[in-house]
Amino acid sequence: xxxxxxxxGVDCGGTNTDAVVLxxxxxxxxxxKATTTEDVLGGVVAAVNGALKNAAREPGEVAAVxxxxxxxxxxxxxxxxxxxxxxxxxCGPATHAVPPCCDMPPGLRALVxxxxxxxxxxxxxxxxxxxxxxxxxxxRGIARQIVxxxxxCIVVSGVFSPxxxxxxxxxxxxxADEAGAALAALQASDSSSASGAASSSExxxxxxxxxxxxxxxxxxxxxxxxxxxxxxxxxxxxxxxHQVGQLGLLERENAAVLNAxxxxxxxxxxxxxxxxxxxxxxxxxxxxxxxxxCLLSTGDVLRTPVATFQSGPVNSLRGAALLTGIQDxxxxxxxxxxxxxxVLVGGLPRPAPRNAELAGARTNFQMPDMLSIGLGxxxxxxxPLTDVKRGGAAAGAAAMQAAHPAAAGAxxxxxxxxxxxxxQDLAGPALPATEHLQTRALHCTVGPDSVGCQxxxxxxxxxxxAATATDAAVLLGCMEVxxxxxxxxxxxxxxxxxxxxxxxxxxxxxxxxxxxxxTQAGDVPVIVVGGGAPLCGATLAGAxxxxxxxxxxxxxxxxxxxAQVGGTVDAVVDTGPTPASRAAxxxxxxRQATARAVAAGARPGSCRVAALxxxxxxxxxxxxxxxxxxxxxxxxxxxxxxxxxxxVAPGHPSLEPAPAQAGxxxxxxxxxxxxxxxxxxxxxxxxxxxxxxxxxxxxxxEAVAAWPPLPGRSEEPSWAALAxxxxxxxxxxxxxxxxxxxxxxxxxxxxxxxxxxxxPDRALxxxxxxxxxxxxxxxxxxxxxxxADRHLVVDAGYMGAPTVGLExxxxxxxxxxxxxxxxxxxxxxxxxxxxxxxxxxGAGAVAHAAAPGAAGSAAAAAGxxxxxxxxxxxxxxxxxAAVMAGEVGGGNGIEPLVVGARLGLPVxxxxxxxxxxxxxxxMTSAIYEVPVAAAALADEKGNVVVVQRAAGASWxxxxxxxxxxxxxxxxxxxxxxxxxxxxxxxxxxxxxxxAWLLGQAVAVARAAKQDAAAAVAAAGGxxxxxxxxxxxxxxxxxxxxxxxQLRLAGAGAHSGCSMxxxxxxxxxxxxxxxxxxxxxxxxxxxxxxxxxxxxxxxTEELRYGLRAAVLGLPAHPLLTTPQALLVVGPAAFxxxxxxxxxxxxRPPLAGIPG
Length: 1154
Description:
β12 (339-345) and β13 form a beta hairpin. The chain is an alpha+beta fold. It is globular and about 95 Å long. The protein starts with 5 loop residues before the first strand and ends in a 26-residue tail after the last helix.
């Protein structure tokens, strides 16, 4: 028998299944295409047998079969076949401000969001210190609620579980045991859904139970988790988030929820594929292709089907590059249900510049930059017609009924409405040309829904009743289908003018998609592949040429056959103080990643490091970094059986600590339980229908539960909508923020962060949810001039490492720090006013002041005659009038909007930096000698640390930074209140207005397909310093800060040049090389944005290949005085050889609020 050395690549799509046979030199020996059958098995068998027959090879010669499938992503895109999911987040007192599923689009959240629980558990960033222990009794109570609600898919998500998975494993064991027992008892007592509903009714609705309507609805629906022979009718699935995603809690949870929603489907698809191989006489090992281009075992896919998302598009790009030899261009892969458009750069898929979105939900998968649209061969055609009636409503309705007798009921019901919208859902008899009816030009919508694998049964060209994109192409002679003819399609009811309208709609959709993925003007080559390739015409606007290579229809199967095996480690580690300790730490992680790749099936000698990213944790002392290592290798054909039996995927828990056994979970309640900080300020989680979870132990802590409708963000606005948005002002001149304002401000705050300050996305999400809870008018921004001289303004924000904040989301620490600072300040003022009395420890009531009219003048000349606080300024009666930002750059620019809405206070349009800076003494209040203490730090556990007095702002920084590390590397922060008079002297005015204007500039440029970098620079009164590609990033940790250098190679107008940027969390100095000429330096703002999107790029997000524009924006005059330059000039950051030269005078800026 010939030796087994061949590979078969199979792409099993929603409509067609393709197979290709490759030899050891990656040559195509044979291929075949078959219709995907409903059970998957038939299509795979037909395609594999056909490919082997065409290659004249025997099944025994095949060593491995690599399968790429879009069935899972199709289910998510179409929101079809997804199960409801319960999410149990192990977080202790942390993360309550941003609950699970809140970052999903509303439609997906409503479909899969069964319920959520905020429970005990979670780790700090090091994976050693617990936020709180897992409470087994609490887990058992949650499990019973989930089963009672009819939910069978559970996600367990622990804070920092990718660093230490033991709590997730422990909780999953308890949940699986208890829920499995409860489900078995339910099935044993009564297997009928009706009896199940009655049983639930008898049990009554206890506190924390799901709404009765939800429980009844879910218990009476047919189970979507039916197992194979010998398994129970209903299965229980428990997904652990660390198996699915990397660091980044919300993104990992989103991916895990989608994964859990797909588990029932996976347990149908994988066995069907295994059966298909056996039916084809193949004993070869079966593998699936993942979204990173690497292979997954069958066991991996049964656990993490979401890992196959985008595997088809990845395979098609790699296959297109192999088949054409084109290294740079756009690949359009048209399947039966969706079209995926991606970009080849150097023969490899262009990486996504941002976290990937799956079904509209942000995830943290490392995937290529792909755009998916609902266009494929099986896409349904619809023909909406707007009627302008001449003869009255009755005549119009009669005409419609004559054209579509089957739709008579619907048409008759709407017949009395002028301008009624009529829709032909299926191709039918043509609308008659009548004297009483006049219609606009025929219009067609294509998809996004599709007949999918039913194309051969439902399409008109096969004798069905559904008009599809394939039918239009056949009728116009653009596609040949065996046994069909244009005349046959037209006879079935599709008119030629309808087909032409459909064709035009398809070409316009493809042109829009190509235009959207392009990064610069000009035509580029477009490679069209996939079974639906004939749906693309010979030319497309924006394409220098449209190429269809040999084997184009099976390019994705070719890409699947050449996939490799990978292993990944993503961890937060202490790399130590020396180069040797760092090298040892990185070598250890590389060994772990290599071990995972080998265990997954890679040949040991072939493994290599494909990617190594090391990002020091910013704003923290020490040498702690987030390190991600990816290793890939060739598939070890000689040990395929062992890999399939015992192999593990990257991140599989078998390489982590062993899971806790049932009954050994800790029952100790977490400290400070779930009831909020000990200082008396309660966590605010005001989701609709939230109730505590019941417990079977009086010692168990209560979890925060939420039932549908789950809280979350709204749909993302379009760039056109954001570009057209205008601020809304109240009659008194207050700026009343709405969600579009928040989006624009968030973009601007990211730009003003100058690479630091942290990504504002989470603060944006918090502000969106707070605005939804509080309602219109709850977020108000006022001019600094509106604060009375003696009224108080307090800043609110966070101190710590933004990387930690990606995982350990906040609850209400910023608000807690503000209240603690205010309490300390008021106690001090009381003591000063009455020296003989002791300050009351209970002081802390917030006195609200109505916003006065315009009070005081504009800010005085920078640094001139700034008033010091004297005894006469100390008054215990001074009310808190507003909240403000300590720094507008990054997430701290948005946080005061949340705190202000919660406290019912406006936010001042200003801040104390005009950007982001790394240290407290760099606040303008400190620069101009206004006291910054008392100041407070507050963590999620209820710890509040107040520094009542400090020798100076630098000492305050030295005292608080190590404390922040002890509090978990992220804590709420607030400094001493300012009076209105001080505010106008030392604060940078109108910084929120500037952020809004920068965000609007991005939106206008994106909507108009214009140069975003030039637009942002103009809005900020600056200039574009450089455009190019990142070619090197060097990072190190020193003095608690992430320091390093960024190098860019020029592009466009800067071709042939290069730039170096030195950074310390924020960008400090920009040099034009090779002459090392300084083109910009602090305190002027050096901002990196993505060239194609205009979105800001933080220093921890910089990576090789990123196309970026470097902007220079002028600093506010408060930052450029001799007094300020001593603190925020180049020399203050170790660049004593650089002399600050202002870019350009900062133009006057009028604030948005009156």
